[in-house]
Design a protein that fits this description.
The structure holds three protein chains of three kinds. Chain A is of the alpha/beta class. Chain A is built from eleven helices and ten strands.
Chain lengths: 280, 404, 318
């Protein structure tokens, strides 16, 4: 099968062998996040096409694929940040709109203007806006909660800094703290490790692992193939269409990666990864 | 001066007092309602909305005249301007959402087209033989000095409503302005909140149109918010500061206009606003130009002092004149570059700190701490006294460079 | 620069010629285009059946701000004779008209009046106040300029023009007498005429009124707040009972003035609407020059405590 991809080149025509024709697929059950038949298109070019995906509870899932494969699109469309052309989204077996309060989203750091006049504390409190409502005041308990979330990401001392004074890693931590403040059950992160320092990456992973231990679901768009095995236990491989999904041990394989990345992934790199998998 | 003080304390007659209060209120409403447009990086949008009111004025006039009414009826003209501004903003929103045109292109297109249609309609109106169109061109430049009591009432009511809505909706609007994706993910209807921001601007534009004219109202929507940004790092405060700047400009401008001959009120108000902006640009703490220059000079001095001391420690000659002057001024070296006692001591300390950093890099593999080395940050800010003592233990006793 | 402007005028004329048109097709009537209604009215009266007169600016139009449209350009370029006021009244059209005058018959009628009869402009050094028609006697001189222009454009009609002009000038003389009579009935201390802009200086000179305008001689400047405050003080000090709005200028400032005076406890009313830079609607009595001045004089006299018949000189006002 891999042979055929390599010889037939790009794009890989693998859907049939991966069970894609069996739609409608299994019911979403009460998975934290499930999408069925999701298609999103910019103009007339689908960015993701007819995706089914199910992300399990109490685990960390990575969405993996090459640039332009629709990773962020999948995430954004799943929570209604961008409109879907077709398909359904279930969050804990409920339609998206009913389950909003259980979702926390961490957008890409680069998607906002960090010169915006606001402080670290203000940003974290944004996570509480839905709870506070339009007229409510942020109570002492809520402030304490926001402070606690900052503490969990190691940013307690920065509460009153202007966000423009933060380093990239610190910005990412603040975004994570904001998501924590929401008290959600499903965390969706868009490239949380892009351009952050090693210490921040460590801190973020620690927080996410605690979330997982608390039974929450974490779904992250992830770029760095070398850390997938260390960080995640579930992967979703995507290249416009679903390539494969499942536990890391069985799904994060050389074949699937080859199918996802096509000729773009150097053979040596794949070997390294599979060796890493062998070592485990 | 005396006349100005009189005007300032509302002692310059009924009209001056009315205009000062009315313009102050309008300034406050415009400043605070324009804030989120600025924070959303859509300041130009206010411009487009203001220009999009003009066709409505023309059409309303033509309609009212052809129905046999008074073409100059103010409520009719304002309703017309509001309607056409609304169409204009929906159009911008639609163009930038549905086509590949960028938002600035959509704004430019709508602004130009609507203003053009407006001018054409006003020209059509001037060739109509009926209806008394006199004063329609006042919508372009306004006539602040001719404010009537009923105008002031409209401003007070409409303006307070706009400010109230701005304040009530500050959280969703802040969220959308800062991070619209996150707002959408939380379930806020971003499009509706955007429309709300635009509607606020539109409401203030329509209220202020007859007073300061569509060209000057744009300035009152944008300048205060931009000015306020210099003075605070909190979006919630930008609202109030922008309101205060707008109010001050309106009030002071009216007072100025009342205190000297031949000062047209509307333009003076905008000039006062621009004056406050320039002062803020130059002298605001932190974000002002002057503060930035001072900060840069201080930083430069720190760098030169440090480099100079390192050179002294290594007993290299100091060639840069600025470094020499700096060290001499601070009593660290003589003008010929020979270190003083204090200079020697500080140089030794700095040289030792550099070596401590070297040790730190060996011991602490974690880049989070050693990564904070930038040549300037004192090692005491990064490591605890115990850790530094540990570095010193590894380094051995200090090497004397004239005593430390 | 000059070349391009001339080219533009020539092009406009060429376009006009190329248009399939009714009137260009050689009727014998002289095609006259006038800028303001007052000039058109005089030209029509003097020209009678021999001319076809069109006025560019209709009722309530402010000539200071008027911009010519393409249709206007065609009409102007096509006309046998163009009559305009001059003295910088048609500020936005002046350049075009001067350019057009290089090749066509274009006559600024107010500029044909001897300079020693004109009032200098307060705002613009070396310029004159263009609102000549406010004094019927002075306007008669402009009518003579118009008559001469018509004769020059159409020498065959000389006799008709002369006799028509005679009749019209007599009407203006009657008008002048009526105006002087009714205005002299206003008590001397009440002879203050406060209006939106400085259009009434010739009127004031002729009938002994002090004329005060909120805005300067042109409507295109914005009033300052101090000016309003000064005028409110003046209203109170001099016990002025009525102020006037103009049909072709926004009434906002006047209304603000009235409100200001009332707030200080001085009762002043808007005495009525004056025709300053444009006549009333076509087809009405006020839509003629005589009706316009009649209306002004009657309105002012009655509002300021003078004695004038309710329906004016000829009983035609309503």
């Amino acid at each position: 099968m891999i042979q055929s991809h390599l010889t037939r080149g790009w794009p890989p025509a693998i859907a049939a062998t991966q069970g894609r024709t069996e739609r409608p697929a299994e019911l979403p059950g009460d998975a934290p996040l499930a999408v069925r038949g999701l298609t999103v298109s910019y103009g007339e070019k689908p960015a993701v096409f007819s995706l089914d995906a199910t992300f399990p509870a109490a685990s960390m899932s990575a969405i993996i694929g090459p640039n332009g494969a629709g990773k962020s699109t999948l995430l954004k469309a799943a929570i209604g940040v961008i409109p879907r052309l077709s398909g359904e989204v279930y969050v804990f077996a409920q339609p998206l709109e009913k389950a909003r309060a259980r979702i926390a989203y961490v957008p890409q750091r680069a998607s906002v203007d960090w010169d915006f006049p606001t402080t670290v504390m203000d940003v974290v409190q944004m996570g509480l806006y839905r709870k506070v409502g339009l007229l409510g005041r942020l109570s002492g308990a809520m402030n304490a909660r926001a402070q606690d979330c900052l503490d969990r990401v190691g940013m307690a001392d920065f509460a009153h800094r202007q966000i423009g004074q933060l380093s990239g890693g610190q910005q990412q931590r603040v975004f994570l703290a904001r998501a924590l403040a929401q008290d959600a059950h499903l965390f969706l992160l868009d490239e949380p490790f892009a351009g952050v320092d090693a210490a921040t990456e460590r801190a973020i992973i620690d927080v996410l692992k605690i979330l997982k231990a608390e039974g929450k679901a974490v779904v992250a768009v992830h770029h760095d193939l070398s850390t997938v095995r260390d960080y995640f236990d579930h992967v979703f491989l995507i290249n416009v269409r679903r390539i494969a999904e499942g536990p890391v041990a069985t799904t994060f394989t050389t074949e699937n990666l080859q199918a996802t990345y096509g000729g773009r992934l150097a053979a040596t790199h794949l070997d390294e990864l599979s060796m890493a998998s062998g070592a485990r | 001066m005396n006349a100005f003080l009189q005007a300032l304390f509302l002692q310059a007659g009924y009209n001056a007092a009315l205009v000062a209060i009315g313009a102050g209120l309008l300034g406050f409403a415009a400043g605070s309602s324009g804030t989120f447009m600025f924070l959303r990086k859509r300041a130009l949008f206010s411009d487009a909305v203001a220009h999009a009111t003009l066709p409505g004025v023309g059409i309303a006039f033509i309609l009212m005249v052809s129905l046999g009414g008074d073409g100059r009826s103010l409520p009719g003209l304002l309703a017309g301007s509001a309607l056409s501004a609304w169409i204009g903003l929906l159009l911008i929103e639609w163009i930038s959402r549905r086509t590949r045109l960028a938002e600035d292109a959509a704004i430019g297109a709508v602004l130009g087209v609507f203003f053009g249609i407006g001018i054409v309609l006003l020209t059509v109106v001037q060739s109509m033989s009926a209806g008394r169109q006199a004063g329609l061109e006042g919508f372009l430049l306004g006539s602040t000095a001719g404010m009537l009591f009923q105008d002031a009432v409209v401003i007070a009511i409409g303006g307070s409503l706009a400010v109230l809505v701005t304040w009530l909706m500050r959280r969703p609007m802040t969220l959308v302005a800062f991070d619209s994706d996150y707002a959408a993910a939380m379930g806020y209807n971003v499009r509706r909140i955007d429309l709300l921001m635009m509607s606020l601007v539109m409401a203030v534009t329509v209220i202020g149109l007859k007073l300061v004219g569509l060209i000057l109202i744009v300035a009152m929507l944008i300048i205060p918010a931009v000015t306020a940004r210099f003075w605070t790092e909190r979006s919630s405060r930008v609202i109030w500061i922008a309101g205060a700047v707008g109010a001050a400009a309106g009030y002071l401008g009216a007072a100025l206009s009342a205190s000297a001959p031949a000062l047209p009120t509307g333009p003076i108000i905008v000039l006062v606003a621009a004056g406050i902006f320039v002062v803020s640009l130059l002298f605001a703490p932190v974000r002002g130009v002057l503060a930035a220059v001072i900060r840069h000079r201080r930083f430069q001095a720190r760098v030169h002092r440090r480099q100079g001391l390192l050179a002294l420690a290594a007993q290299h000659p100091i060639r840069e004149a600025y470094t020499l002057r700096l060290l001499a001024r601070e009593g660290l070296a003589r003008p010929d570059g020979v270190p003083t006692e204090t200079g020697r001591a500080q140089a030794a300390k700095i040289a030792r700190d550099e070596r401590r950093w070297d040790v730190a890099r060996e011991i602490h593999q974690d880049a989070g701490l050693t990564g904070r080395y930038d040549g300037l940050t004192p090692i005491e800010e990064v490591f605890t006294a115990d850790e530094i003592a540990e570095f010193d233990r590894r380094l051995g006793p200090p090497v004397a460079l004239g005593g430390a | 620069m000059n070349l391009t402007k001339r080219t533009f005028v020539a092009a406009a004329a060429a376009i006009a010629m190329a248009l399939p048109g009714g009137w260009a097709a050689a009727e014998e009537r002289l095609d006259v285009v006038a800028t303001t209604g007052m000039i058109a009215d005089a030209a029509q009266n003097v020209g009678g059946d021999l001319v076809e007169v069109r006025a560019l600016m209709g009722a309530g139009v402010d000539p200071h701000a008027y911009r010519q449209t393409r249709t206007d350009v065609v009409a102007l370029a096509n006309a046998d004779l163009v009559l305009w006021n001059g003295l910088y009244l048609e500020a936005q059209m002046e350049e075009f008209l001067l350019e057009l005058g290089q090749d066509n018959a274009v006559v600024p009628v107010a500029e044909g009046v001897p300079e020693n009869l004109l009032i200098g402009s307060e705002d613009y050094e070396g310029r004159f106040d263009p609102h000549l028609w406010m004094n019927p006697n002075l306007w008669s001189r402009a009518v003579i300029v118009i008559r001469d222009a018509l004769i020059e454009a159409h020498p065959d009609g000389e006799e008709t023009f002369n006799s028509n002009a005679q009749v019209y000038l007599e009407k203006l003389a009657d008008l002048s007498r009526y105006t002087a009579d009714s205005l002299s009935s206003v008590p001397a201390e009440s002879r203050i005429l406060l209006t939106s802009h400085d259009a009434f200086n010739y009127f004031g000179n002729a009938y002994g009124f002090e004329v005060v305008g909120i805005q300067g001689i042109s409507t295109e400047s914005e009033a300052g707040l101090q000016r309003i405050a000064q005028l409110v003080d003046m209203l109170i000090e001099r016990d002025v009972r009525a102020v006037f709005v103009e049909t072709s200028v926004s009434d906002r400032n006047i209304r603000a003035l009235v409100e200001g005076a009332q707030a200080e406890g001085h009762d002043v009313v808007i005495g009525g609407e004056l025709y300053s830079d444009a006549m009333g609607e076509p087809g009405t009595y006020e839509g003629t020059y005589v009706g316009m001045i009649d209306s002004n004089a009657t309105t002012i006299a009655r509002a300021l405590g003078g004695d004038a018949p309710n329906a004016g000189m000829q009983g035609l006002l309503n």
